[in-house]
Design brief:
mainly beta; two-stranded antiparallel sheet
């Protein structure tokens, strides 16, 4: 066997390749939102009041047995939070601050130091509107891998005012950013398409939400989204709407315990949509490229039984069977083997089809190994 060592110019290391695919199932871009379910939506399944399985903090959303994201409600002013439910609470009144904690968690993770509120583009990207109340859609990290691709996410909501779909504005701003605004639109045949405004396709900024590709998080302006979609209409039980005037007091109990109702209504808004959620993920894979240079005088002969005699046909073993191949040989390369310095086979690459080699031509074959 002939071994040809690589030179420094033949190996290009440290390359990064982006591998994209749909996030759902075995690689589908879309999934019907009506398929999402959660055991936490109606029943408290945890072992205690602070067990995350209770759905008091997050509701985990599943489709086909796999968890894809969680949802939460956060409030800067703590509106909707509750007292810790234990004997004697009417005296002690221990405030648990659930909504304040959740809002602060996302603020500390996603916003710049010094930012107090989440700000959403309203009218244009240059006119942000602050919101003290948010819904969050937090995708599972092992599902979206390195990032959710900008321009390839669509979320839908259903409420008393109808159904609405939103995409990010990456195709409109046409620059790579860490965060994008949500605009009305949908993904059609893999292409993000903003809804029309006055028969013209344009971005309609309504202060609805923000999309963070690398963290896999969608933060929604709960007040604006509720006003647009009608997520928390007044119920017979008297549960208030998120859009109602809310106290700017962290210790207020005006809307005590209602946040559990709000997050479950948001859950229903997601799963009652008859449209498909779309999410495409990407993984950035380090790779090394090996350039195999087959020069004109190399690899023109073969030990294959179709090329040389095995001695059973009356010819001397090892003799080239066809005389015309002695001076003008033709071989076909089908496989590349990569070896270490001890001549131990490490990797095998197959060509898409046999490629002819002779004294009259040279080949350059690139072999890429992803790690």
């Amino acid at each position: 066997m002939i071994f040809t060592p690589f030179t420094q110019d033949d190996v290009v290391a440290g390359r990064i390749n982006q591998v994209s695919s749909g996030m759902f199932g075995t690689g589908s871009l879309t999934v019907a939102q009506s398929t999402f379910t959660s055991a936490q939506s109606n029943v408290l399944t945890g072992s205690g009041p602070f067990d995350v399985k209770n759905g008091q903090y997050y509701i985990d959303m599943y489709s086909g047995g796999d968890q894809y994201f969680s949802i939460a409600y956060g409030d800067f002013y703590n509106s909707g939070s509750s007292y810790f439910d234990y004997s004697g609470q009417s005296i002690a009144k221990v405030f648990t601050n659930e909504t304040k904690v959740i809002y602060t968690q996302y603020k500390n993770t996603l916003l710049q130091p010094g930012d107090t509120y989440f700000s959403f583009a309203s009218g244009s990207v240059d006119s942000p509107t602050d919101s003290s109340a948010i819904f969050a859609i937090n995708y599972v990290a092992d599902k979206f891998q390195d990032q959710i691709d900008p321009g390839q996410i669509q979320v839908n909501f259903s409420g008393s005012r109808g159904q609405y779909s939103y995409i990010d504005d990456s195709q409109v701003v046409n620059t790579q950013q860490n965060v994008y605004n949500l605009i009305s639109g949908s993904i059609i045949n893999g292409v993000p398409t903003p809804f029309t405004k006055g028969s013209t396709v344009s971005a309609v900024y309504e202060g609805i939400g923000l999309f963070y590709p690398t963290t896999g998080i969608v933060v929604l302006n709960a007040i604006k989204l509720d006003a647009k979609v009608g997520i928390t209409p007044t119920s017979p039980s008297g549960s208030p709407q998120i859009t109602a005037t809310r106290p700017s007091n962290a210790t207020s109990t005006q809307f005590k315990n209602y946040w559990r109702d709000w997050i479950r209504k948001f859950y229903n808004s997601v799963r009652k949509s008859t449209r498909n959620m779309a999410v495409r993920k990407s993984e950035f894979v380090p790779s090394t490229n090996y350039f195999i240079r087959v020069k004109n005088k190399e690899f023109n002969y073969s030990n294959n039984p179709t090329f040389v005699s095995d001695g059973s046909d009356g010819q001397t073993k090892g003799t080239i069977i066809y005389p015309q191949l002695i001076s003008n040989p033709r071989t076909y390369i089908t496989t590349i083997g990569l070896y270490d310095t001890n001549n131990e086979l490490l990797a095998v690459g197959k060509l898409s089809k046999p490629t002819q080699k002779s004294f009259d031509n040279e080949l350059l074959i690139k072999c890429r190994i992803d790690f």
